[in-house]
Amino acid sequence: MNVFGIGLPEMGLIMVVALLIFGPKKLPEIGRSVGKAVRGFQEASSEFQNEFKRESEQIEQAMKTSAHIEPKELEAAKAEHDAAGSSPVS
To answer: Chunked in runs of 10, what are the mean pLDDT values of the chain (90 residues)?
Structure first.
């Protein structure tokens, strides 16, 4: 098992050192705090991904809409230009 580049023996050593530093009474409280922080980070990451997907879909939809409208506008502009170009200029 390899989490963040730390293997199982290293995780065990970290747990033993944490147990020695903080003691058995404080360790569950620290574990809960770390768990809440990790959960909050995961929720924020998920929210960011959802927002990014939503924005990219809106941009994609806008591009499709402009791609459909643009040829019609070009044809209209070309027709106006042709009509203006065929009339004599004073």
So the answer is: 75 86 85 89 92 91 76 74 61
What is the Cα–Cα distance from 33 to 37, expressed in whole angstroms? 6
- 27, amino acid identity: L
Are the beta carbons of 28 and 18 closer than 8 angstroms? no
Q: Residue 86's pLDDT is what? A: 55
Q: Does residue 6 sit in helix, strand or coil?
A: strand
H/E stretch holding 24 reads helix 8-86
Interatomic CA distance for residues 84 and 90, integer angstroms: 12
Task: Classify the C-alpha dihedral 20-24-29-31 as positive or negative.
Answer: positive
